[in-house]
Amino acid sequence: MSAPRKIQATCALELWDREALPEPDRELLNAAHEAVTRAYAPYSGFRVGAALRLENGVIITGTNQENAAYPSGMCAERVALFHAGSLYPGMAVEALAVASDGQAQWESFSPCGGCRQVIHESQQRQSAPIRLILQCRDQPVTVADGIDQYLPFSFKADGLGSSR
């Protein structure tokens, strides 16, 4: 048996002030903040909005949609990504902004595990990273060049083996 070796994942997120973001990122983040107002979150009270920009420049928004049967709800990120995939199949997503007016701190505001996997699958399908722009209220904005900074050891389709 070989000697154990240390495996280390790195997280290289950028922190920005909203006003200092490049204009395309700020526009997308503003759309995500506006989408928050349409979220349906009567159970958690944690409203989330998402906005994504496709390679053709179209911006699509989504909001979290809760349900009394919790597993039946949907996160804002997935609503936006699935809507984009349905309306514009094959069109690459350049960036995804996610915003909330909730009480989370910027350090803990990030996509849930399910959304991370869906973002990863979207990146794999388009063979290009999706820029992530996240902000809770007026706190610092975190920017990542792709989902790998949030999901370093992702499940990939090739892990399914010959059963596909």
How are the SSEs ordered, and which strands pair?
Layout: E1 14-16, H1 23-36, E2 48-54, E3 59-63, H2 76-87, E4 93-100, H3 113-126, E5 131-136, E6 141-144
Parallel strand pairs: 4-5
Antiparallel strand pairs: 1-6, 2-3, 2-4, 5-6
Would you give an account of this structure?
The protein has a 6-stranded mixed β-sheet. By secondary structure, it is an alpha+beta fold. The protein is globular. The chain has 3 helices and 6 strands, in the order βαββαβαββ. Helix 3 links the parallel strand 4 and strand 5. Helix content is 24%, strand content 20%. The chain has a single domain, classed as Cytidine Deaminase, domain 2, CATH 3.40.140.10.
Q: How does the major sheet shape up?
A: 6 strands, mixed
CATH-defined architecture: 3-Layer(aba) Sandwich
State the order of secondary-structure elements, H for helix, E for strand.
Answer: EHEEHEHEE
- Please state how the strands of the largest beta sheet are arranged side by side: 1-6-5-4-2-3
Query: What number is the mean pLDDT?
Result: 91
Helix content: 10-25%
The low-pLDDT segments are none
In the residues, how many domains can be counted?
1
From the N-terminal CA to the C-terminal CA, the straight-line distance is 32 Å
Structural class: alpha+beta
In short:
This protein is an alpha+beta fold. The protein has helices spanning 23-36, 76-87, 113-126; strands at 14-16, 48-54, 59-63, 93-100, 131-136, 141-144. The mean pLDDT is 91.
Structure keywords:
single chain, 164 residues, 6 strands, Cytidine Deaminase, domain 2, alpha+beta, six-stranded mixed β-sheet
